Structure formats: structure tokens, C-alpha cells
UniProtKB/TrEMBL annotation:
[4Fe-4S] cluster binds at residues 117, 120, 208. A motif (PP-loop motif) lies at residues 42-47. Its main location: cytoplasm. Residues 305-321 have a biased composition (Low complexity). Pathway: tRNA modification. GO terms for biological process: tRNA thio-modification. The keyword Transport does not apply. Signal peptide: none annotated. This is tRNA-cytidine(32) 2-sulfurtransferase.
């Protein structure tokens, strides 16, 4: 590609990232004047982009708010402790590196070969809440993006039997902080590209030696395959999360099925009996075959997926910060 074209493409990507992050911030009223936001920085592409785009948006925001980058050095073997301080110093952003050897704690408590992520995440959450409190932050921004949200939705359906994703904004479980996900509308491939454009000094995410969450990896592959076959499907799935029709689901807490009465009057969103509503036409409209998972030819259902589904009733783990 010629340099002018690369430049134009990069500029388009930057505009798209700023637009999508700005839109998510506006839609969910994420940021108010006077906020002090702790931006969790792991050294991966997502959190670097989060900080980068928030800094750009802050420059043109009509309100004042503060961003403080925070990294938790968990003392994993090989963690390059100098990388983030050097990057953040050169950026001129206020930052704090919290050093806590959770790696040794986890290794001591969890038997060899067992998954360490749930204890590690619990420890990390407690530390980050304490740091946010000490830094006087009222909000915590995380780098989860559209594809993380959709993976979590499907994992919770498949293994946790819950229609539950990962929200763009929610109060923390201890009730103290507002947790924000400003990248909620951003597609992962855009984050990969932006990390290359900006040449972020990426820190590898496998230093703890823990196995990747196999189910999350498989669901991620499935989503990417769907998107490859039907561009736009993942954006449609995200939009579906913003357009829920409780009467057409089956949660008795959300819709009063037990006390439902006929009125004799037409009901706009009433049941159409045998006629399943047609999906709207468009490039992302699925065909019947394409709704199926990409399956191995000889197995009627994904062998790993089905065995995991029957054996694992735990809610899906959240991706790392
Ligand atoms: S993968 Fe992440 S959450 Fe899991 S043990 Fe390693 S650092 Fe902790």
C-alpha cells in the first residue's frame, strides 16, 4: 500500500475509534465533570488503546475530568517492570504502578495444574479497589471491548445458563466505584490495528503461565468465523443487547406472564402464532445454515463444546484486565 493510503486508513481508524468510544461514553453517561478515573493498564493492546483514545477525547471534551493510569505488577516471572513507567512518563500522564506479588500467593494456594485465574482475579480486584480508593478515584475504566462482551454473553449462556453479558457501565460489586467499559462498541480487529499503528510496547499476557480459558478461546474463534462469513453480525449482536424485548424472552421476573390478560385489542408486539417474524434484510441477515456453529464434519455438535457444556456449570470467567 502506498504511504498516503496507509496514512488515510490510519486516520480513518483513529476517527472511528474516537467516534465509537465517544458514542459509548455519551450513550451510557459514563463521564461527568470532576470525575477522577482510574484507567487500568495491563500492557495489552486493549488497555493501551483505551488510555490513548480517552486522552484524545479529554483534549476536546467540554468538561474537566482526570485520568490516572494504574498498572498492577503481579510479579509474574519475566514481567518487564520498566516498560509501562517509561511509556507513561514519556506520555506525561499521571500514573501509579502497584506492586503486589499475587503470583506467589496464587502459586502457593492453588495446586499445580489447577486453573489459577479465579483466585488471581479476586486478589487483583481487591487490590485495584484499594488503589482506586487511595488515589481518590470515583470511576474505574477497563479495556473490555465488543468482542469480549459478546464472548461473555455466549459463555454465560452456554455454561452459566444465564442471559448475561458484560455491561458498558455498572457499579462495582462492593458498591464503591462506577466501572466503565468505554471500548464497548469497538471491534477487536480495530484494536489490533491501532496497536500496530501506535506501536504500543505490548507486554505479553501469558507470563503467569496459566492456560488460556479454552472455552473463551473457542467462543472467540466461533465469533470471528461468523463475522468472516457474514460481516456485520457481531455489530448486530451487540445492538441486540441494546434492544431487548422482555415479552419475547421467558423471564417471569421481567415480564408478568402469570397475570397476562387478553384485551381484544391488537397488540403491537403481540404473538404472531405460527409466523416467525422475518429477520430484516441486509448483509448481516443470517441464513439457517449459517446460524450453526462451524462444526467438524463428523460430529453433529462441537465435541469440546458439548462435553464442556454438560460438565461445566460455572459462570464464564471474565477476561483479564
Ligand atoms: S491469566 Fe490473568 S487472571 Fe489468570 S492467572 Fe494469569 S494473570 Fe491471573
Amino acid at each position: 500500500m502506498n504511504p498516503d493510503k496507509i496514512e488515510r486508513e490510519n486516520h480513518k481508524l483513529e476517527k472511528r475509534l474516537c467516534r465509537l468510544v465517544g458514542q459509548a461514553i455519551a450513550d451510557y453517561a459514563m463521564i461527568e465533570a470532576g470525575d477522577r478515573i482510574m484507567v487500568c493498564l495491563s500492557g495489552g493492546k486493549d488497555s493501551y488503546t483505551l488510555l490513548d483514545i480517552l486522552l484524545k477525547l479529554r483534549q476536546r471534551a467540554p468538561i474537566d475530568f482526570e485520568l490516572i493510569a494504574v498498572n498492577l505488577d503481579q510479579k509474574q516471572p519475566g514481567f518487564p517492570a520498566e516498560v509501562l513507567p517509561a511509556y507513561l512518563t514519556q506520555l506525561g500522564v499521571p500514573f501509579h504502578i502497584e506492586t503486589q506479588d499475587t503470583y506467589s500467593v496464587v502459586k502457593k494456594i492453588i495446586p499445580e495444574g489447577k486453573t489459577t485465574c479465579s483466585l488471581c482475579s479476586r486478589l487483583r480486584r481487591g487490590i485495584l479497589y484499594r488503589v482506586a480508593r487511595e488515589l481518590g478515584c470515583n470511576k474505574i475504566a477497563l479495556g473490555h471491548h465488543r468482542d469480549d462482551i459478546l464472548q461473555t454473553l455466549l459463555l454465560n449462556m452456554f455454561f452459566g445458563a444465564k442471559l448475561k453479558g458484560m455491561p458498558a457501565k455498572l457499579v462495582s460489586d462492593n458498591g464503591e466505584f462506577m466501572v466503565l467499559r468505554p471500548l464497548a462498541y469497538v471491534a477487536e480487529p480495530d484494536l489490533v490495528r491501532w496497536a500496530q499503528v501506535r506501536q504500543f510496547p505490548i507486554i505479553p499476557c501469558n507470563l503467569c503461565g496459566s492456560q488460556d480459558n479454552l472455552q473463551r478461546v473457542q467462543v472467540g474463534q466461533m465469533l470471528r468465523e461468523w463475522e468472516r462469513q457474514h460481516p456485520g453480525r457481531l455489530d448486530n449482536m451487540l445492538k441486540a443487547l441494546q434492544s431487548v424485548v422482555p415479552s419475547h424472552l421467558m423471564d417471569r421476573e421481567l415480564f408478568p406472564f402469570e397475570t397476562l390478560q387478553t384485551t381484544g385489542q391488537p397488540v403491537g408486539d403481540g404473538d404472531t402464532v405460527f409466523d416467525a417474524p422475518d429477520p430484516p434484510a441486509g448483509p448481516a441477515t443470517p441464513t439457517l445454515q449459517s446460524v450453526a456453529l462451524p462444526l467438524p464434519t463428523r460430529a453433529p455438535t462441537g465435541p469440546r463444546a458439548s462435553s464442556s457444556a454438560s460438565s461445566n456449570s460455572q459462570p464464564a470467567a471474565q477476561p483479564a484486565l
